[in-house]
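pinned: reference chain
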Amino acid sequence: MFQLIVFDLDGTLIDSRRDLANATNALLVECGGAPLGEERIAGMVGDGAATLVARAFTAADIDRPPDALDRFLRIYGEHLLDYTRPYPGIPEALDLLRSRSQLAVLTNKPLASTRRILDGLSLASYFPPHAVLGGDGPFPRKPDPAALCHLAAQAHVPLCDTLLVGDSAIDWRTARAAGATACLVRYGFGFDGVPLDQLGMEDRVISVPGELLSL
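pinned: its structure tokens
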């Protein structure tokens, strides 16, 4: 069992695709564009809100106003928990894992939104406040490994005993750059972009959260 398990948020702990898609489409329509499909928007998630907004405007083929990011964050902030829920089995897995390992969250989502979601879904108690890092903190966003390295150093755990659980190639690249082990989740909406042919022998792939207990 790994001494430190670090979780991505969207597509790993929580299924947030509908709320993200609805907020993105509300912004596009405000700006004169047509809405995009939910799956298409889900494929744009992972590099932070600014990149999501930029990708959506490019896909919708309309001009992006200077305040587009602020408007998206306002809209999304009002609807963070309309449909977003933990994936089935996540609370049960976390409840068992915290008795064996230290737990943390590393996401490219803004920290304020991350904390509101964790609180609203009764997941905050699994993660100490100092062990939750967002994309707008003091470290560069994933796949830069600095934030993951910080979490491991803060926990006094070697990176070789650290597991990063995520649903995307971004998470895989982050773990590889840090010298940690990656665990990729098939159920997440970023998994289609994972380069399965490039995974190493040390990388893990699971289909349901409960499989974390056997790693």
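why pinned: The mean pLDDT is 95. The first helix runs from residue 17 to 30.
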